[in-house]
Design goal:
By secondary structure, this protein is mostly helical. It is about 55% helix and about 5% strand. It has a two-stranded antiparallel sheet with strand order 1-2.
Amino acid sequence: MIILIEGFNNFEVDSDQQQKGANGGEGSMSFSDLFTSEFMQQYTQFESIEDLLSSGGFVINSEEDYEAIPDEDIDAHVAKTTKFNSWKELLTNAIETTFTLKN
């Protein structure tokens, strides 16, 4: 079964680390910008964050969809299919990688 995630590029991620980034102020970034194909290929078996999420059966079209995913479900999927033990670890590494490359 293939699940398409539409509108995913409009979904934004906010974080404390990101706010310390480029302008030192508040910021947001799409998942597609945060999880580059290079990052995904280096740390996962997927070409994109959309592929990783859809392979776990996660459909994210909005922030509400994202927040509704049980932590234990996404953590288990990330631990099984990536080099990380949890979604938070994957997300943190992507943020750090993105802002290290930009500086």
